[in-house]
Amino acid sequence: MMGLIVSYAPVGIAIGLSVALFAWLVAKSGPKSVLTHGISRILDFWLSRRYFIANAHNSPIPGCPYKFPNGQGDAAKFLHGKENSDSWGKQYGSIFRIWAGMTPEIVLTRPEHIVTFFKDSNRHIKASSNDSGYFMSQLLGQCLGLVSGKKWLAVKEATEKPFLRAASTNYVDLIQKHTSRHFKWLWASGSLASGLVDPAGDFKMLPFFIVAAIIYGPLEPELEQRLRNLAPEREKLFHHVLRGGMSRFRLSRYLPTRANRELAVFRTKWHKLNQDLYASAACRSSSTPIIQMSRFVDSGEVTREQLLQTLDEMLFANLDVTIGGISWNLVFLAANPRVQEQVRAEVVSRKQDGTFEAYLLDSGSLLSACIYESSRLRPLAAFSVPQAAPTERVVGGYLIPAGTNAVVDAYALNIRNPFWGKDSTEYRPGRFLEHTATELRYNYWRFGFGPRQCLGKYVADIMIRSLVATLVYDYEVGMDNYGMDGKGSEWGRIEDCWINHPSLRLRCDPRRE
Q1: Are 66 and 99 in contact (CB under 8 A)?
Q2: Counting C-beta atoms within 10 Å of the first and last residue's C-beta, which end of the chain has fewer, N or C?
Q3: What are the helix and strand counts (H, E) for the chain?
């Protein structure tokens, strides 16, 4: 049977159909069955030869064996990414291969790998549907972050204007008003009044509605509530992506699965809600971003599905991303009261001299350094979005063929990288005031590398600065049941979230002065 598989490797459709049928059988028999183990070994034999990668001595690249049906899959990269980053690095070395479904991904861990692989990042191709399979293609496969080439240029032109650096500086007042309103709501709801705050759960919808206000303008209460109600439905859909299995395969489109039913319901609601949000915005101003974006659909430059999926990406997909950045900042400041007081002194000074709005735009402040340090120690995701270089290249001694997807191991680059020194595991924001942007360029992963960095990074930073500055100015944040060394090895995180979120509560006391 192995001989047949190798001989007929080009017949991808037949193999894909067979694998999909096997996936269905595995779903019935269980992931640890003898059938699953047997299929995994056969496919690993075939895949490791089909995608043979070696060094100058013809030694194959090390890596994880394929496990049917997801390979290592999204769960291993995202849900268990922190642990796997460490264990895979110890087992396989500085460069190795994992499997996303039946697609190979090369894991890059060192700055020199990044320099070589990303030297022409403007020509890179993002992995189809994030290497997450068919269901992901239906959910976000056409969004800005996952398309490439001419499609990317068209969608980028249609949607980027409100999020450019110049435009983002105009949102400081909007962001502050939303932040102030959210704190008042938290106090009235009882969480702040009781002296406790959940750094992930209590602030989850703040960045969501700020971005919504940027895109759609002021929201009518009924439309705001519909957006709020849709968020948990959308969150459930991504759990299907993370689980993988049958939904990875195109054959699943014909099956009456719960995932397909829930996706159909969500898409209907999302399309209708956007029609109503557009109509509401059109009554106010023709310059509202959603009106401007929709003109690209009317002209045929982008499709309606591309726009709707990109709006989904901006709001729902990035909901977890932004709150991950916010929440860990609060945890680290709570665990490091001396740094917290230094940041507060900086905030007080800028409020007193009338430069607070400019301060929220300042990337060279201690506040900004705290944000960078938090992201260094707690990357939003353990591994980056996979992408492929257009030409072959030698990385870490191995010849990587053109079109082979690679991911960056954020924990290896941000923490285990010798660039960060002997105190690399410690929280020391001042380190970011000691290095230039050029020095940091290939030693630090946050928003990506090159022109395909996160579109919303400028708005995200202003939101995080605004929230953190407001919190430390008005409240003293602390930790009762956790160590104060700032390393946080014992801090829990939400296990079923693909983005790294803390699972704990902080003490939050109003300042009396």
Answers
A1: yes
A2: C
A3: 22, 10
For 424, the 3-state DSSP assignment is coil
The separation between CA 31 and the C-alpha centre of its own chain, rounded to angstroms, equals 27
Lookup result for tokens 């970011």: 432
Beta strands 196-197; 387-388: pairing state: unpaired
- Annotated binding-site residue numbers for heme: 454
Tell me how far apart the terminal alpha carbons of the chain are, to the nearest angstrom. Answer: 77
pLDDT of residue 10: 44
Residues in the chain: 513
State the pLDDT confidence band at 15, using cuts at 50, 70 and 90: low
CA torsion, ordered 145, 282, 297, 386, to nearest 10 deg: 0
What residues contact residue 148 under an 8 Å CB cut-off, 6+ apart? Answer: 124, 125, 126
- Eight-class DSSP state of 284: T
Q: What is the pLDDT of residues 161-188, one digit of tens each?
A: 999 999 999 999 999 999 999 999 999 9
Q: Write down the pTM of the prediction.
A: 0.91
| Residue 337 to residue 48: CA distance in whole angstroms | 51
351 vs 344: CA distance, rounded Å = 10
Residue 323 identity: I
Give the whole-angstrom CA distance, residue 369 versus residue 376. Answer: 10
Please tell me the distance from the alpha carbon of residue 40 to that of residue 19, in angstroms, as a whole number: 10
- Contacts of range 112-116, beta carbons closer than 8 Å, 24 or more positions apart: 112/396, 113/395, 113/396, 114/408, 114/413, 114/442, 114/449, 115/442, 116/393, 116/394, 116/395
**Which residue shows structure tokens 């008003």?**
177
Q: Is the preceding peptide bond at 69 cis, omega within 30 degrees of 0?
A: yes
Cβ neighbour number for residue 346 with a 10 Å cutoff: 18
Asked if residues 343 and 366 have their Cβ atoms less than 8 Å apart, the reply is yes
405-408 β-sheet, strand order:
95-100, 103-108, 405-408, 387-388, 125-126
Phi, psi of 122 (to 5 degrees): -65, -15
Distance CA(242)–CA(75), nearest Å, equals: 5
Q: Which of 240, 312, 228, 302 is nearest to 270 (CA)?
A: 312
Give the residue numbers of the binding site: 454
Mean pLDDT, residues 315-330 taken together: 89
Task: Work out the percent of the chain whose per-residue pLDDT is above 70.
Answer: 91
pLDDT digits (tens, 9 = 90+) for 453-506: 889 999 999 999 999 999 999 999 998 764 444 444 568 877 777 677 788 999
